[in-house]
Amino acid sequence: MAKKFYLAPLASLMAAVLSFASPAANAEPCLIVTLTGTQGGPPVFQGLAGAGTLVQYGDSESGCTDLALQFDVGRGTTQRLSQVNVQVGKLDAVFVTHLHSDHTEGLTELMQLRWHFNSQGPKIDFVVSDDKKSPAGHTLSGRGFAEHIGDALLESGEIAQRLLENPKRLVEGPAGLFNVMTFGDLEQPEVVWSSGDVTVQAINTRHIPGHASYRVNTPAGSVVIGGDAGNDKNAPPRDTSTSAQVEELSKDVDIIVHSTIHPVMGPDQDSGFPPPVYFRQSTATDLGAMAKRVGADHLMLTHLIPSLNAKRQGPFPIPGGALSESDYIDAVSASGYEGNTIVGTDLISLKLPAE
Ligand SMILES: [Zn+2]
Predict the structure, then answer these.
(1) For the whole model, what pTM was predicted?
(2) What CATH code would you report for 29-352?
(3) Ligand 1 centre distance from Cα of residue 45 (Å)
(4) pLDDT category of residue 355 using cuts at 50, 70 and 90
């Protein structure tokens, strides 16, 4: 009898230990941030993809792949995603910082591919600022961009042709696969998208009308995607080239991903780079100073102006010749930032928690 008395608790204890040791119980939340493209601005250089950041979240059992969020979709994004085994049909949402082609032009091919093979859904959330009227009179419209994403292929007759081949595809073309989600003038960070324990906040920032920056919060860590944000004051004298709104969004964040211009392109040098374009970006040194102030452990520089090893930025020569990785590191270090600086190259990634 005594034997049986002791066996029962032992068995349940064993069962408890076994269930605790199972992979599901031990699965730890994790976050992977991958730069899908690091080209700065509209030029092309040595096959770099246009600006974009992939944020994946999940647990150690799934390899952090339960959720896939794409921030900006520059040219070549679809190819870069294929290199990290992310199918466009598996993306949960696309967020756009602003309506400049170097951040959006890859979306057309991405959505056409999704239409081709994933017409039956699900739709993809497309998150962007509300329509914003420029002081010059025209309107920047993310909704308009989304609604007309398939127009060239509708007009050419290709959509009709492919519908004949497979009538299960969406008659309206790739635009019909968007779930457009817009947000208004956000002067403070607000949640604009969420799924499970993951939230995405946005804040409107300066660069062009309707520019926004995003922050992803997950149990494994947080990341800010600044886009091309710059200071509200678009020329010196000013304290910094970085955005006060991005700084607010970045309080206690783990990772900052931000477009970067090297001070060598400034009007005090002789590149001939247009000063208004220089002043609407954030410099590597000022980004380091901001990362230091907010206590970010990691600063990922992307959208590099100029690209590493490029002798020109578009038509503009680089004073003193092409820049190397250490030129960007030095520019950040000049701020006193002692965190981890990553000078972006296509597909470089960062995982939290670190392995
Ligand atoms: Zn840009």
Answers:
(1) 0.93
(2) 3.60.15.10
(3) 14
(4) confident
